[in-house]
Design goal:
The chain is an all-alpha fold and about 375 residues long. It contains 14 helices and no strands. The radius of gyration is 21 Å and the shape is globular.
Length: about 375
């Protein structure tokens, strides 16, 4: 057995298999919502009881709001996750649902904001951690000072995802007919989407507050380059993979895994900042957003295993329009326009619900034509 296969076996034995089983994804695949969502429900219930014990009814209420906020913000993220995940091998699916949860809860929603505060404030790691637990109000204010950088990076990265999807010249299914057909035609020009985002970066540089010009420009360019780099990385190794392979493995799967984690980070960072508008308690924020992230992972599994993407032909279109809209909202925030959190989250759900309704109507029309 090769070293690579030994490493995979060890990882699955000690990390992947237990949690993979808990998520209802054994070799015998189940589509039962109960078997897929029970772990998320259990974890949420345990955290809810803990919040009730330590924070009373008020703490439990804030915890519930944060969970709903995270799931609402990331519903479209789950749709995109399931589209990418279904093409990955079972090993990488297990890795995304086990190691990926650790990254989503601990790294993205706790460590990454701390590193951002470190970079923007000049404080050391221990000092920022001390702020997070002992002076959450100051920690939240410091994190909000980093909002322009986060919004420029996240907005650009999410906008690139939406633009790349709709400017794919091989795309032949269109939900918003005239608009999407024009975008597909624009995709015939290889560098057009890069031209658009670099133009946006320059426009941001000349129009945002003077104190944020350089950081916004750099962050938006990094967001664009990161998306392009991940596309190149994934495409290169995908082409080198054997043509007979049905699932992405090896470096090609690693590229997709990295893409999913960065996509999750782009969604969650804005949510972390928004959470401080609800509460300054860092433990409460981590618990609420972390539980929400686990629900999103379960939702990803359900969408992937139930064949929902195939059943609703426009669902993926709706998710990408929602992601594009969220990217634009993040960029608009650079001009001190702060739409309420409920509006931002509800916007994505409305777009996705409309896409599902359109899919159902199209199915009925197709049946009536036969």
């Amino acid at each position: 057995m090769s070293n690579n296969r030994v490493l995979k076996s060890v990882l699955l034995a000690f990390i992947g298999s237990p949690l993979y089983t808990l998520f209802g994804m054994r070799e015998k695949i189940t589509h039962s919502p109960l078997k897929i969502f029970w772990l998320s429900g259990l974890i949420t219930a345990v955290l809810g009881v803990w919040m009730l014990t330590h924070g009373g009814i008020a703490g439990l209420w804030l915890f519930a709001i944060l969970v709903v906020l995270e799931v609402t913000f990331s519903f479209d993220n789950a749709v995109i996750n399931s589209r990418v995940l279904v093409r990955m091998s079972p090993f990488w699916q297990k890795l995304f649902l086990t190691v990926g949860i650790f990254i989503a809860v601990f790294v993205v929603r706790f460590l990454l904001p701390i590193f951002i505060v470190m970079l923007t404030s000049g404080h050391g790691f221990s000092e920022v951690v001390n702020l997070a637990f002992n002076d959450p109000e100051k920690y939240g204010e410091t994190l909000k000072h980093a909002a322009p950088t986060i919004d420029a990076f996240g907005g650009t990265f999410l906008a690139m995802i939406g633009i790349s999807y709709f400017m794919n010249r091989h795309k032949d299914i269109h939900w918003l007919g005239k608009i999407e057909r024009k975008l597909v035609r624009a995709g015939n020009y290889e560098n057009f989407k890069v031209f658009i985002m670099l133009t946006v970066a320059m426009a941001l540089y000349f129009t945002v507050d003077d104190s944020h010009k350089i950081t916004v420009l750099v962050a938006s360019i990094v967001g664009t380059l990161l998306h392009i780099g991940l596309e190149i990385f994934g495409s290169y190794f995908e082409k080198r993979q054997k043509k007979t392979a049905t699932n992405l493995v090896g470096m090609a799967a690693l590229g997709s895994f990295m893409y999913l984690e960065i996509l999750d980070a782009s969604f969650s960072l804005d949510g972390v900042i928004g959470a401080f508008a609800i509460t300054n308690e860092i433990v409460l924020i981590i618990a609420g957003l972390g539980a929400g992230a686990i629900w999103v992972r379960s939702l990803t599994v359900y969408l992937m295993r139930s064949g929902t993407l195939a059943k609703y032909k426009y669902l993926e279109h709706g998710a990408h329009w929602a992601i594009l809209a969220l990217g634009i909202v993040m960029l608009v925030k650079l001009y001190h326009v702060e739409p309420p959190e409920w509006f931002t989250g509800t916007l994505g759900l409305i777009v996705i619900a409309t896409a599902i309704a359109s899919s159902v109507i199209e199915q009925k029309r197709a049946v009536s034509r036969k």
